[in-house]
Amino acid sequence: MDHDQLARALAAFAVLDPTHFPLHFAQVFLVVARKGPCTFQTVMEDLDLTNSAVSRTVMALGQINRKGQPGFDLLCVVRDPAEGRRFLIMLTPKGKALSRQLQGI
Prior knowledge:
By secondary structure, this protein is mainly alpha-helical. Helix content is 51%, strand content 11%. It is globular and about 45 Å long.
């Protein structure tokens, strides 16, 4: 990826809320976008983040953040059908649209 492509990709995230969208939000989103539905453990290992950091970030990128305010609605969490005690992080329709936009850059 060259500098222009990176700038366009960051601009796609910046339109969401440039003052409240930290870089690690984009990193978590990109892990899920690249891998498809994945566990919290996968994100933790890929980005070397703690479980609490991943959980807070996923909540912020979800429909409602941990403070009960609207989130970015890019990710959702569902129970893993293969293992009922585990949860998967997935893209929402809005997240899928952003992923397609980033792939076109």
